[in-house]
Design goal:
disordered N terminus; alpha+beta; single chain; three-stranded antiparallel sheet; 794 residues; 5 domains; five-stranded antiparallel sheet; elongated; 26 helices; Helix Hairpins
């Protein structure tokens, strides 16, 4: 009863709410059907501001006098292009909406204009004006983007030219007092620029240290310090706990722990930097000089953090069992202090050099700073190599050769030694920029190789874990795709190998297109310039489409395997087709299905078939020189599966090979001989050569024929009847056609008789002839008839 009352109350409230909504809707004013809602369009002043912004970037680029001063403008041009893309993306839906509305109204009639209502004419005119203005704005944005893209290309050329000129520029040697004089006694212009920078710092600091802001500034600075120190430790411990308790035990846990350690260091440093930047700019933005300096300082901080974070993750001195590379523990302990010393030294020295770059000091000051950086890096790396060499010698003396050779030494050790030697010679010869460049590239090489080594190990262990049949993911893939453990291992190896090859390629490219101070955006942009050639752009492959392509590939393979099993086990066995035809149909279906899956996968990637002419041309050249036989065999396999001159189960004879067809593959056919061995015959031979198909007619009979020689003194009729009786009494021989005996040959050596009978299948001829010989010899012995002896060889 209580439930009934609840239901009645609910129905009443529903009806009451519906009535109230209907009455309320009647009171609302009707929407205006004739007025076109104005759409927001970028004003002309905004376009002028964008143009002025681009012109300012061009002015900064033209005023740059060294390689490093172009890094900041390049980042700002990239940000400018992103802003243009966002504005264009916001206007494109409005353009499409206006086009649809104009399409609904239709074109203006050529005659009898008065027949059309005035409000429709006014609405069409308004929409047309809006669309024209929007189209003009989009064209202007596209032109600005193209100019910015051309500017990036020009920046790359200018940086290349400046780098070449700086590396080949000869100055004073570090042993010459003239090298140190700009630092000891700078000229008046450099002093003025330094004082201007200090004044800018004081002004910016005073704005955040006002009496009412000191507490918040101190709190933000303290918070940044806490995040950078205790926050990093807390984040690292949290990620470590997560890896230990959530990641399965094995190599994946070890690589995940190393990655978590590096990630905690980088992430907390980034957060601390953002807090400091907010503390300094929360009231007023930085001046242009300080803005340029802050951007370069941020890059240097990230480079130093990468040095320390990757070193801690790979050395893992606190937990040697977590260490990814095969580094002996004494070597790791010897290497431990050097990354921190190197990063702190670079942070201080490079920051000072960035001050000279941001303020535009003289080239003598910049060159001197570069020389000091090169000497310090050279000294630190040289000390590191000597210390590691000493530890390795101690390990060799302790008969621990394996531990001594378990470092990254070898090629890396040699490259570092050669780099130090060349850098030292360059400093002594006066090529300071070349020495600084080598030192920077040495540090950059460590960052790139260490980072990609960590990523490669993580990807490798992740692939092995995901495709392992012992884990839930591997079991799910086995059940989804219907594959075995061996196939899972093959998939893991293929995916892991492809991923590692791709990462190695990116590492090699990163070594040459980046350097100290290169941001992640710049690095990705430089990599895409190299990898994103015209041919790849024509393919129209978008990263967002990769997931769709993977899903299409997995689902397509699963569908083909499921349908193939259904055909083999359910549908085809219930038809009246012979097993050979069923096998041919199943193979043909699988081949066509896999081809369609490949086409669907490429379509999901966004590949436009009209732009594949260059791939087809390359393939045609490859086919003409090296793939002729493969293509010929492939086409022949399709002909065999469709015309079916031979099929699975047929007994054939070709080129002296006789046996049963076991399988017709895409390239070759498997023929099983009588001894159960397999002969692989290319499909083209089955099409182009003379082939004997014994079982093609379906009613082929085997011939059991024996040729025997008897002495001249036998009774031929008696022997004939004996042979016919042996044939007639054999159960495998057919009654029709009846067996017969033929007088084959008469010679001085004897009489040759040939007895012939037929069996139901050519496959039992051998066994039948063996049984007949046993029986005939038995009967001849019982009748006292001997076979003729062969003549003796002269």
């Amino acid at each position: 009863m209580r439930d009934t009352l609840k239901w009645m109350l609910l129905v009443a409230l529903t009806l009451l709410g519906s009535s109230s909504l209907a009455l309320w809707a009647e009171d609302l004013p009707a929407p205006a059907q004739n007025a076109a809602a104005p759409l927001p369009v970028i004003a002309q002043s905004d376009l002028q501001a964008l143009q002025q912004r681009l012109d300012g970037l061009k002015q900064q680029i033209s005023a740059a006098n060294n390689y490093n001063q172009l890094e900041g403008p390049q980042d700002r041009v990239q940000a400018f292009i992103l802003d243009i893309d966002r504005l264009s993306a916001a206007l494109l839906p409005q353009q499409a909406q206006l086009a649809v509305q104009l399409g609904v109204l239709g074109a203006a009639p050529d005659t009898d204009v008065a027949a059309e209502q005035a409000d429709i004419i006014a609405q069409r005119a308004t929409l047309t004006a809006q669309k024209s203005k929007l189209d003009s704005t989009l064209k202007s944005l596209a032109a600005l983007k193209q100019n910015a893209a051309d500017l990036i290309t020009q920046i790359a050329g200018i940086r290349r030219t400046l780098l070449e000129s700086e590396l080949t520029l000869g100055t004073h040697s570090v042993l010459n007092p003239g090298f140190w004089s700009p630092l000891v006694n700078p000229d008046a212009d450099d002093r003025r620029r330094l004082h201007f920078f200090v004044d800018q710092l004081r002004t910016s600091g005073a704005s955040v240290w006002l009496p009412g802001e000191r507490f918040y500034t101190s709190l933000l600075v303290f918070l940044a310090f806490i995040v950078w120190t205790f926050g990093r430790r807390l984040a690292e411990r949290g990620l470590t706990w997560l890896c230990i308790h959530r990641v399965p035990e094995g190599r994946l846990r070890r690589s995940a722990l190393a990655f978590a350690s590096a990630l905690a260091t980088i992430a907390t440093t980034a957060i601390a930097l953002q807090i400091l930047f907010y503390a300094c700019t929360r009231h007023q933005p930085l001046s242009p000089v300080l803005q340029t300096f802050s951007e370069e300082f941020e890059k240097v901080v990230y480079a130093c953090v990468l040095i320390t974070g990757l070193s801690r993750a790979l050395l893992s001195t606190a937990h040697p069992s977590w260490r990814l590379p095969a580094i002996a523990d004494p070597v790791a302990q010897a290497l431990k202090p050097y990354p921190r010393v190197l990063s702190c030294t670079l942070l201080v020295l490079v920051t000072l050099v960035q001050v000279s770059n941001a303020t535009g000091m003289s080239s003598q000051i910049v060159i001197a700073g570069r020389g000091i950086i090169a000497m310090v890096v050279l000294t630190i790396v040289l000390t590191l190599l000597l210390r590691v060499g000493k530890v390795r010698k101690a390990l060799v003396a302790a008969n621990d050769a394996a531990a001594a050779n378990s470092t990254f030494a070898g090629i890396i050790y040699t490259v570092a030694s050669v780099s130090i030697l060349v850098s030292a010679l360059a400093l002594l010869a006066g090529y300071v920029s070349l020495a600084r460049f080598i030192s920077y590239q040495l540090v950059w090489g460590f960052i790139v190789l260490s980072g990609f080594y960590l990523l490669i190990q993580l990807v490798k262990d992740l692939c092995e874990h995901v495709f392992s049949p012992r884990h839930a993911s591997g079991k799910a893939l086995k059940q989804l795709l219907g594959i075995g453990d061996r196939r899972l291992d093959q998939m893991a190896i293929l995916l892991s190998g492809f991923s590692r090859a791709a990462l190695m390629l990116l590492a090699v490219i990163s070594l040459f297109v980046g350097g100290i101070g290169t941001t992640l955006g710049q690095l990705l942009s430089n990599i895409m310039v190299i990898l994103g050639g015209a041919g790849l752009r024509k393919l129209n492959i978008v990263p967002a489409h990769l997931l769709n392509a993977v899903l299409a590939l997995i689902i397509g393979i699963w569908l083909i395997r499921t349908l193939s099993r259904w055909l083999d086990h359910e549908f085809l066995p219930k038809t009246e087709m012979d097993p050979g035809m069923c096998a041919s149909l199943s193979t043909l279906f699988s081949n066509i299905g896999y081809a369609l899956v490949i086409l669907l996968t490429l379509s999901s990637l966004g590949v436009q078939w009209t732009n594949l002419a260059w791939i087809v041309s390359a393939l045609s050249v490859g086919i003409g020189f090296g793939l002729q036989e493969i293509v010929k065999n492939f086409v022949s396999g399709l002909i065999l599966l469709t015309e079916r001159p031979v099929k699975v189960g047929d007994l054939i004879s070709i080129s002296g090979v006789e046996g049963d067809i076991r399988r017709i593959n895409v390239r070759a056919t498997e023929i099983q001989l009588s001894d159960r061995s397999i002969v692989i015959v290319p499909n083209s031979q089955l099409i182009s050569q003379n082939l004997r198909n014994v079982t093609l007619g379906g009613s082929a009979q085997g011939v059991a024929s024996l040729e025997l020689m008897f002495p001249l003194d036998i009774d031929p009729e008696q022997v004939k009847e004996l042979l016919l009786d042996a044939y007639r009494e054999n159960e495998t021989l057919l009654d029709k056609p009846a067996p017969f005996v033929r007088f084959s040959k008469l010679s001085p050596d004897g009489i040759t008789l040939t007895v012939t009978g037929y069996v139901a299948s050519p496959r039992i001829v051998g066994v039948t002839k063996s049984d007949l010989l046993f029986e005939i010899l038995k009967r001849l012995g019982a009748a006292g008839i001997a076979l003729a002896k062969p003549p003796a060889a002269s």
